[in-house]
Amino acid sequence: MTQPGTIESGAITTPTGRVLSPRAQRTSIVVAGFGQNIVLTTVTTFILVYLLQYAHISVEGTVVVTAIITVAKLADAISDPVMGSIVDMTRSRWGKMRPYILFSALPVAVLSTLLFAIPDISEGGRLLFFGVCYFLWGFSYTVCDVPFWGLIGSAFPDSRERTGVISHVRSFGAIALGLATLGMPWLALALSFSSETTATGWTLAVAAASVLGMAMFLLAFFNTREKARGDRERLTFRQLFTTLFQNTPLLMVLLGSVLGFGRYIVQAGGAVFVVIAYGNEAYFTLIGAAIIVGMVLSSFLTPVILRVMTGKSLILWSSLAGAVFSVLMYLVGFQSIVLMMVFIFLTGLTLGIFVVVQTTMIADAVDDIEQRTGVRNDGISFSTLTFVSKVMSALAVLVFGVFIVLAGYEAGVVVTPEMQNTVFIAITLVPAVSCVLSAVPFLFYRLGGPVSGRVENRDSGRNSSVGA
């Protein structure tokens, strides 16, 4: 334990004389990730509900919305490696990642609010407004997210410490997911100042959540520092992309992740499903709580399990378990909300394991390519994490949107058993197949054993004071 008046080992003194201990940096990263996830969860979880229930988008409009979200996410995914390479080529007094964290927070907060402030105009105008805002939001979020994950890899070179930080970021991210999922409908109702939730209530609720979330995110700029790496020459696009495609372990993680897009379908369409299945969006509080508890629990436990089991083995077993739980959920049915919560909790366990192990695998792959080539490309390599997350999310929205269209659902329509079953297949059998497919590429991941606390051999001076 650190005694009062002492400085922790590995502490950094800034040019202004302020001491940043490792504990302060870890805490700030976790809080920043927590705030970021509040904003992300609010947008990804409730945007379809808002558009269908409060912006009154028709079935035909839903087709357009699905296309907009899918194309925007794919465009964002493609831009992630570009953003990562820009980060790697950046040189500033704040480092190469922290400047983007500073200047992206306000645009993300503003655009998140605008997505839930669709004006009361013609449907074509509403769709155009949504499309423009969603594309801009996706770009702004890329600018904040890619450097954030690269900063974790840079600020924490010890593999065991880094795994713990990633675990806590993921765990508290899941808690943020829970708070936003469970709390936003109630906050929107409270800010509607009436007995029923209104579109204005959603606008005010999202504005409040966005300002608070991105204010916390700024702690990643103020209270962390990138480790100095000497006077390295400026990397070129060719060097960055060459080393990226030489990194076979990283490519296997990316392919396995994309094939596992079905894991995100419950998040993308769960709120709509409960309206169709139970006629009450408040039931999503129960479903959301179940998956979040599972994710939080497994996110905290995963670093402990990784001490005795390889990431490869853990992700393979969790993928197969996720497939089994999803199939069983379909066979049991959704009539019992209690049984639904049990199975959603179990799938949440497997999802929590996946997101932690996926991130640690990417970090290990970054270290491996540096050892083999001498090129340290945190930005472009960690951009692949956001790349696959967006591709997975885009595919989840696309597939769920297709099932919504096939079911013929829109606000006010009479819900039939056939409609319910169609949407239920989307959140059960589709994820099951997806989990099985995603396990295949991970069979070819060749790095790593149990996490042992190794410290990578990086440039001398990495514990030097850096940044302002």
Automatic annotation (TrEMBL):
TM segment ranges: 28-51, 57-79, 100-121, 127-152, 172-193, 199-222, 243-262, 282-302, 314-332, 338-366, 387-409, 421-445
GO molecular function, one term: symporter activity
A GO cellular component entry from the record: plasma membrane
Pfam family, one: MFS_2
Any GO BP: sodium ion transport
Keywords in alphabetical order: Membrane, Transmembrane, Transmembrane helix
InterPro entries with a match to the protein in the record: MFS_2, MFS_trans_sf, Na/Gal_symport
PANTHER family named in the record: MAJOR FACILITATOR SUPERFAMILY (MFS) PROFILE DOMAIN-CONTAINING PROTEIN, MAJOR FACILITATOR SUPERFAMILY DOMAIN-CONTAINING PROTEIN
Protein name as annotated: Sugar (Glycoside-Pentoside-Hexuronide) transporter
Organism the protein comes from: Microbacterium pygmaeum
